[in-house]
Amino acid sequence: MLKAALIGNPNAGKTTLFNALTGARQRVANYPGTTVERKEGGFQALGEDVALIDLPGLYDLTPLSPDEEVVRVALVKERPDVIVQVLDASNLARGLYLTLELLTLETPLVLCLNMLDVAEAKGAHVDSGALSKLLGVPVVETIASKGVGMEALKRTTIKTAKEGGAPKAPRTTYGEPLDFALKTLQSTIEAAPSLESNFPASYLALKLLEGDELLLKAIQAGAGYAPLKAEVQAIRERIGQSTDMMLKQRRYEKASQIAKGVTLLRPKPAQETAGDKLDRLLLNPRVGIPAFLVMLFGVFALTFLLGNPLAEGIERTIGALGAWMIGALGTASPLLASFLTDGVLAGVGAVLTFLPQIAILFLALVAMEDSGAMARAAYLLEGWMSRLGLHGKSVIPMVLGFGCAVPAIMATRIIESRKERLITMFVMPLFSCSARFPIYVLIVAAFFPKPLQPLALFGVYMLGVLLAFLIAVLFKGAFDKEEEGFFLLEIPPYRMPSKKTLLFFTWQRVGQFLKRAGTVIFAFSVLMWAMSRFPSPPANELAAVPEGLRPAYRLGYSFTGRLAKGIEPILEPIGFDGRIGMALIGATLAREIFISQLGIAYALDAPEGASSSLADRLQKDYGPLTGVCLLLYFLIASPCIAASSVMAKESGSPTLAFLQVGFLFALGYAAVFVVYRIGLMLGA
Amino acid sequence: MHKLTDVQPGTSVILKEVLGGKRLQKRLIGHGLFEGRAFLVLERLGQGGPVLVEIEGSKLAVGRGIAEKILVQPEESPVGLIG
Ligand SMILES: Nc1nc2c(ncn2[C@@H]2O[C@H](COP(=O)(O)OP(=O)(O)O)[C@@H](O)[C@H]2O)c(=O)[nH]1
Ligand SMILES: [Mg+2]
User: Which atom of ligand 1 is nearest to the CA of A27?
Assistant: First the structure.
């Protein structure tokens, strides 16, 4: 089995390539910094098995953070048989800057010249043959998003790995006295075998002169360390303070030169590209920020306009299925019929109804990520965000938070400064995720007039955003202050999201939703059904109750019914009754259970044969004030176990995750209380 | 010399000095920003927002805090015949 490592600048197309080569489905996005962990996969060609790892992107091999050190460890300690570097052909100098450093690692190297279509569109033709000759390594042309060049890349990778040996590249020259210093240092290292290091001498010499702190630490256990350090010190003093910067700058200049040498620039067409035109319009905050908001609103409107009719179709189908089941089983086995219709169908079915809306929401999120819109929003909002104690790049996890908080919290890794990253995580629950979305839709549909529904839904989301910003401002002093905002972001070109990517990732998210419905939601629905059905009241007691009130009496007698009575004192001040209370308890397990539990409670409570939608039943039993209170509760207070555990892990502070849950619950309870009391006074 | 934050959009400039620490300097080199390099200032957002520059054909947004530490000089306009 051969081992290959994928490496390259952020957004060069590594993950797309990884997916195309291995058939995996890792997340891609058109902004830098998406891949935060290493991912492993494999492919076969020429009768060989190749294990491939996808690494986080980086600009050079001088890690400035432990996160980036991961990449170097993967390259140096684990010694892959071949390194595949992905280069963005439309941004060649930047990639070659990394290449020149990779060459010193003495590991076989393959260059993958990606994004050729983008370069061509820009009027740049890259001569891959010339590049290969100049650097002494194979170069493969690819367009990863269209799967072009994959077979050639597989074959070249395997061949290069099998041949082995360091790349035959000419040594990069830095000019005197740097070259002389590098050579001297390299021979010292080669002569000191006691040095405990997996690094090749040429790489070690370069990095030591560049003052790479992490590397110094990594080798300090070796016996040869002390004299080596002294020599490095002496050289740096002789050459001057800026040895490290000089080396890097010369290397970049060299990369820039090579890039120019192998790129044929066609005479530029007189008019600017469509993307540039669009950017001149949209990168103006007065147009861009409203456009971004309109886009978000459009997403929510779309889920309603397109999603609701589809959802109603599913609801009707489930209703019909239930009626058929009762007809077929009702008399033969009433308990089984109740389990299937009142438990499974009412619980899981109520959640499944929201499948179309969820699919539309994720489709829109994927499209926004892949088009390049997110990076632009980050740029436009950086000024405002930094004043709130947040970071321009916070925008990206925040929008992702509308999908699910778990990937959103992981995505905060693109934020370089710790303080801003922590605040972003802390306010993340206020960006309502897709599990809360069906709850909002249900409540909004029950209590708001039809024309106002999309606006009401959008309003809930915006209220959350506003609260998040307020909390960020209030808390920004609480996190350590020394660090200042560090914002540096490449604005990628616009891309038409490919149909394949859109369908791939939407289907993936829909699949997760379905899986959740089939497992967690199913299990809890069954539990909730059983708890709401048993114990049954004794037959003689039930006989004394008037016919029409029997279902309600049964429910009250059950375990759920009693528990609901028990927690009523806590809920009474905020206007929730026992039935809602039970659903809220269910919701702490998984938010969708709120809907399942209501569905079950109503199904068990229904007089025989009565069937009306959940929204209708809610509307009959509660006023709009309860609706608003429920929206507020779910927006602010409802916790999510998965999000909290990721938060604890990513922030490195379980205390912070704990505080977050407590704080938001208290805030939510207080807000609902105030709104409910004011509502009562106003007579709502 | 001017701070990058003081340059009018549309100006081509040459980077003269980066005032920040080594960490910042190293990061900027990775994006092709160091002494002697020419680039174009595309846009400058108000409200403490970033500066957008174009370097070697790609766009880079530079946060206000960083932009204030980058000193640049407008590129010499070619000595024209117009005088
Ligand atoms: N036009 C074009 N787009 C590409 C190509 N390769 C990748 N992309 C897109 O570039 C963006 C970044 O890709 P990704 O794989 O996430 O880059 P990574 O950050 O290096 O992992 C995505 O929007 C991809 O769809 C290519 O060859 N041509
Ligand atoms: Mg990636």
Answer: 16
List B62's β-bridge partners, or say none.
Answer: A488, B51
Cβ–Cβ gap A487/B66 under 8 Å = yes
Report the separation in Å between the CA atom of A13 and the middle of ligand 1, taken as the mean of its atom positions.
4
Give the range of the structural domain holding residue A91, as residue numbers without chain letter: 2-163
Contact A487 B65 (CB under 8 A): yes
A117 lines ligand 1 (CB under 6 A): yes
Which residue has the least CA distance to atom 25 on ligand 1?
A145
Q: How confident is the model at residue B83 (pLDDT cuts 50, 70, 90)?
A: very low
Rounded to an integer, what distance in angstroms lies between the CA atom of residue A351 and that of residue A593?
A: 8
> What's the whole-number mean pLDDT along residues B39-65?
90
At A29 the pLDDT is 67
**CA dist A324 → A127, A318, A327, B34 (Å):** 68, 10, 5, 74
Among protein residues, the one with the nearest Cα to ligand 1's atom 26 is A115
Work out whether the CA dihedral A154, A155, A156, A159 comes out positive or negative: positive
Q: How far apart are CA A122 and CA A663, in angstroms?
A: 51
pLDDT digits (tens, 9 = 90+) for A331-354: 778 788 888 888 788 778 877 888
Examine the domain organization and report whether A182 and A157 are in the same domain.
no
For residue A28, the ligand closest to its alpha carbon is: 1
Any chain A CB within 8 A of the CB of B17?
no
CATH (domain of A94): 3.40.50.300
pLDDT in tens, A575-598: 888 888 888 877 877 787 888 888
Closest ligand to Cα A35: 2
**Is A430 in the same domain as A551?**
yes
Residues A159 and A186 in one domain: no
Disruptive mutation site among B58, B66, B68, B69 for chain A (greatest number of A CBs within 10 Å): B58
A104 plus A209 within the same structural domain? no
Candidates B27, B49, B66; nearest CB to A64: B27
Rounded CA-CA distance A230/A183 in Å is 16
Residues of chain A with pLDDT under 50: none
Asked whether A390 lines ligand 1 (CB < 6 A), one says: no
* d(CA A584, ligand 1 centre) in Å: 42
Residue A263, in any domain of the structure: no
- Higher per-residue confidence, B12 vs A500: B12
Angstroms from A485 CA to nearest CA on chain B? 7
Q: Does the beta carbon of A627 sit less than 6 angstroms from any atom of ligand 1?
A: no
What is the structure's pLDDT at A482? 53
Q: Is A12 in the pocket of ligand 1 (CB under 6 A)?
A: yes
What's A564-588 look like in SS3? Answer: HHHHHHHHHHHCCCHHHHHHHHHHH
Instruction: Report pLDDT for B80.
Output: 41
Assess whether A435 and A458 both reside in one domain.
yes
Amino acid at A116: L
* Residue A132 to chain B, least CA–CA distance (Å): 22
On whether residue A246 sits in a domain, the answer given is: no
Identify the H or E element spanning A666: helix A654-681
Q: Is the dihedral of CA A513, A372, A19, A199 positive or negative?
A: negative
Number of domains in chain A: 3
Helix (H, G, I), strand (E, B) or coil at A652: coil
pLDDT of the residue at A666: 94
**Predicted ipTM of the assembly:** 0.91
Structural domains of chain B in order of their starting residue, each with its CATH number: 2-74 (2.30.30.90)
